[in-house]
Amino acid sequence: MPAFRAPRGTRDLLPQDQLALGRLRALGEELAQRYGYHPIATPLFEQVAVFERGIGEVTDVIEKELFLLAPREEDGERWALRPEPTAGIVRAYVQHGMQTWPQPVKLTMTAEMFRYDRPQAGRYRSFWQFDVEAIGDPGPAVDAEIIELASRFYRRAGIKAFTILLNSIGDAACRPAYVAELTAYYREHVGELPPLERSRLERNALRILDSKDESIAALNAAAPKVTDRLCDACAAHFAAVREHLDALEVAYTLEPRLVRGLDYYTRTAFEIFPAGAMGQQSALGGGGRYDGLVELLGGRPTPGIGFGLGLDRVLLALREQEGGAGAIDAPEPTPVGVVVGSDPADTVTRLRVATDLRAAGLAARAELGQRKLGKQLEAAARDGAHFAVILGDELASGNVQLRDLEAGTQRAVALADLARELQRASISHRHGLAADRPEAMSD
Ligand code: AMP
Fold first, then answer.
1. Is 337-440 in CATH node 3.40.190.10?
2. Domain 15-174+230-328 class in CATH
3. Is the pTM above the cut of 0.70?
4. What is the distance in A from the centroid of ligand 1 to the CA of 129?
C-alpha cells in the first residue's frame, strides 16, 4: 500500500487516458471553432456568491457539492472551485462589458470542474467538461444549432448510440404557476418524500422532480407536466426549436420531467445519455437556455444558452464500446521517428541527429541508452514509433537508413536530406491513415 494516494473521488489520468482526453478536447475545440465559438478561460475558483446566485441556493450543486476553499482569516472572502462553467463565463461577460460586443457572444471553454459529491462510478470530484455558451440570442434557431453541435460531437467522438432528451421548462411568466401546482401535488404526497426532498418542498418543488432518489420515481412520473402548462410564448418557442431540429434531422426524445439541476434554466433544456442507460451517473452531457442569468449576475437582461458535455463520461462510454478511444475522430498524433545506431556507445551522434530533426519541427526521439541495435529497434517499435533512423558504418559517407517500422521497408537517405525525407514519409503515412478511414475526411 503506497503512503499517499490521489484524493478520494479524483484519479490520475495516465498517458493513455490523458491522450484520449486530449483528443476529445481537440475535437471539441475544432468543432466549437467551426461553429463560431471563441475560446475563453475563467479562474478555477470564484466568489461563492457567483455560484449561489448563478446556480441557485436550493440545488444539489450548492447545498451538497460545492468545493469550498478555506479562507485566510485576513480577507474573509468565500471562494469555491467551479462546479460548472456557465456562472463564471457569464460573470466574465458582465465584468468585461461584452453586452457592447456584437451579439451573440459565442464562447467556449474546456476545463476541469469540481463537485464535492459522493464518489462512485462515473461521478468524480474532479472532471472535465467541454462547454459552449451563446449569450445574447433569444433563439430558437441557436437552441437547435447548439443541440446539433452536441450531437455532432458525440458522433465524432465515436459514441455509437445516444439519446437526446428535450424539454421546455417555461419562463418567469408561466413557471411560477406550474411550480405552485407541483408544490400542491407533492404536499399531498409528503409522507412518501425522503427527508432531503421534503425539506425542498416549500423552497423549490422543481428540485424534487429532478431528484436522483429512485424511491420517488413513480411519484415523479405521475406529477403534473410542465409542457402542459407553458405560456403561449414558451410553447411557440419550444415548437420552433423542434421544427429547427427536425429540419437538421437531429433525433430527440421529448422528456417532460427533465428540469436539470440548476435554477437559472428557462425554456429549452436537454440532456444526452448513452442509448439504454438513463441513470444519473451516465448522463454524457446537458445544457439549456438561461434567459435570466445575466441579469442575476448584475448585467442587463440578456438571453443565453449553452451546454456542458462531460468528457470523463464519454471516455467511460467509449471504453465499454468496441474500438475504445480509438473511435475518436480527431487529428492523429504526429508520426514519430526514433534514431538508433549500430554503435551502442555513440549516444552523442544519436542525440545530435534527433536534436536536428526536432529543430526541423519533426517528432523525434533518440535511443539514449547503450544497448545493442536489435534491442534499440525493439524498444522503438514497443514505444509506438513509426520510423527508425539507423546510424551505421555508412555514416562515414554521409548516409543513414530510414526504416518504416510498420511497412518493414528500408532505404538509404543522405543525412543532409534526412529531415526532408522524414517529413515526406510522415505526410504519406498520415494520408495512408486517412484513406483507411474515409469517415475522417468529412462528418
Ligand atoms: P450537469 O451540469 O450536472 O448537467 O453536468 C453536465 C455534464 O457533466 C453531465 O452530463 C456529466 O456528463 C458531467 N458531470 C457532471 N458531474 C460529474 C461528475 N461528478 N463526474 C463526472 N462527470 C460529471
1. no
2. alpha beta
3. yes
4. 8
